[in-house]
Amino acid sequence: MTYRKRDYPLGDIRRHLETGPIVLVSAAYKGETAIMTMGWHMVMEFEPALIGCYMWTENHSRTLAQTSKECVINIPTVDLIDTVVKIGNSSSAEIDKFAAFGLTPVKAAKVGAPLIKECYANFECRLYDAKLARKYSLFVWEVVKAHVAISPKNPRTIHYRGHGEFTVAGQTISRRRLFKPEML
Amino acid sequence: MTYRKRDYPLGDIRRHLETGPIVLVSAAYKGETAIMTMGWHMVMEFEPALIGCYMWTENHSRTLAQTSKECVINIPTVDLIDTVVKIGNSSSAEIDKFAAFGLTPVKAAKVGAPLIKECYANFECRLYDAKLARKYSLFVWEVVKAHVAISPKNPRTIHYRGHGEFTVAGQTISRRRLFKPEML
């Protein structure tokens, strides 16, 4: 599937990450690229737009992202589910995952890491804080540029449940009328 | 809705949190209780079972949880959606949310904070690390006891998208056959 995308306001990326989708992290350093599958992440701040990410020492993408201090967080939809699993079950130290899995690298605007064209959204990130890397494998990234598909409005993201199972994002329900204006 | 629950292995709670549901955090201190709605959280470790949680200084629940060093992370399903929003749009400093919203507090096994009976799952937590509280409002909690409903196996959890909208967990898809055994 190919999505047409537009620039997206950084203060609003929680719309696509707070729901907890599995994401693909792409990174590059000195001509080498890597992609990892990541399920442990959280929104940490609106402005700057901070995302906390668990990136394990065994992930080759972590090495490239930590060294270059840049990465891209890409959000796949259910059409990419097999690819997501294959990326999580192979190592970028051994294969070029873009070539192996038919993904298209696209030049980012502000970072050296490539966007994954086939994903619904791409968030270009710069390293904000690596102090928690040693204790928790936790990296805090600042999103500096966001690209999100124009449609559909409600993407069928996939959410990892462990044991090889995913939940697909279903129905969207609005409860806007129950919110205080300042909470929206 | 009332769920029948059983003890659940701590190393497996990612099954219910990695998907990114909105959760309710309950806390208690010196006879006072509080409940907050929380969307910014992540799994951080299997063993010990660590959960990173963004708890804002304005949340009264944060004050009680930080002081007592205990809380319960409760996972609601879509039948509680209005209650979840109302909890997020009111303050425990002003009202007793259990009474105001018809929720039933249940005594926990290992912590002083009450479980919310109407939720699908309840994770009793002890404070593991508060060093990141000042800089990031981030608290690392260790789950010390887990209670999860016996059925359904695939709960209709709700996932906050901002703007007053939620996505409901839909279809479950297994891709177990594509995983290496050691990745399951």
Structure description:
The structure is a homodimer. Chain A is an alpha+beta fold. Chain A has a single domain, classed as Pnp Oxidase, Chain A. Helix content of chain A is about 15%, strand content about 40%. Chain A has five helices and twelve strands. In chain A, strands 1, 2, 3, 4, 5, 6, 9 and 10 form an eight-stranded antiparallel beta sheet that branches. Chain A has a two-stranded antiparallel sheet with strand order 7-8. Chain A has a two-stranded antiparallel sheet with strand order 11-12. In chain A, a hairpin with a 4-residue loop joins strand 11 and strand 12. The first copy, chain A, starts with a strand and ends in a 10-residue tail after the last strand. The mean pLDDT of chain A is about 95. At the A-B interface, helix 1, strand 4, strand 5, helix 3 and strand 11 of A face strand 4, strand 5, helix 3, strand 11 and strand 12 of B. Strand 12 of chain A pairs antiparallel with strand 12 of chain B.
Spell out the key features of this protein:
homodimer; 184 residues; alpha+beta; Pnp Oxidase, Chain A; eight-stranded antiparallel sheet; two-stranded antiparallel sheet; 39% strand; globular
